[in-house]
Amino acid sequence: MTRRRLFLALAALCLTGSPIARATDAYPNKPIRWVVPFTPGGITDTTSRMMAQRLSEDLGQPVVVENKPGAGGQLGTEAVARASNDGYTILYGTQGTIAAAPALYKTLAYNPDKDFVPVHAMFATPNILVSAKNRPYKSVKELVSYAKAHPEKVNMASSGMGTGSHMTGESFQMAAGIKMLHVPYKGSAPALNDLLGGQVDVLFDYPVSSGPHIKSGDLIALAVTANKRLASFPDIPSIVEAGYPQAVNSSWSGIFVPAGTPSEIVNRLSAAIDKALASEEIKEYASKYGAEILADLSGTKFTKFIQEERKHWQDVVDYSGVHLDPK
Fold first, then answer.
1. Whole-prediction pTM value?
2. Which helix (H) or strand (E) holds 108?
3. Regions in the chain scoring below 70 on pLDDT
């Protein structure tokens, strides 16, 4: 190439911009795939679809929820880690898949620190400790007494290995000095179904999914894993009232993108999430189900929060001895 042609090519590039710059400026110009690594029907599915509608309105493109369950959320999380970093595949990350999994599993098919960019946190939601009907315990005190007298005879369901409901259960067992038998499922919906059917005994679940069954009398609520009672469930004692303040816990969620995603795209997504969290619909949902909206948790603040969470769950895992093999 002659110097003249090289000069003209560079000049044209300066005028039109690089392909990456043009793609970033136009973002988004096609539908965005939002991978939720759990089954339909649970809290992750409910909140993602509600948020997806708000995000679609702000971004001007459909945000399509894709449920990809398996291995406690690892399969869907890994899929996003391997996806293109163009902003068109995003992840519903959780306390379990991002903070607890590195402590829980000896090896992971993804690296939460190196494979993802934290965009923005969404919610922190306490669990409700619910029991199947016709069990010999109607309070936390009675459950602890029964579990101590019958080690590993109480079946504790969860939404999967390393998920928020699993680790909340481990945290409670550590605080209460008991040992229950863990029964993992591929999401909270199938775990809840088996609890309703009496196949398992207890479950740490979310108010949005277990609440209707509590109000109908089909499940017995023993405690909420919060510092105080929820306004929407004033008759359910807090875990602090039950005598176990060490078991206070809220499962959090956030949106992540593959590492290397341009900062302009990350910022655009973060702004859209921030706007969605400020909507009246989201505020009403959070108030109804005792969820905390994590409006100010993005970027480096979100990264620091994740690092602190990881230290906490490492302590829980070390105490419980629950170290798992990869999927």
1. 0.79
2. none
3. 1-25, 325-327
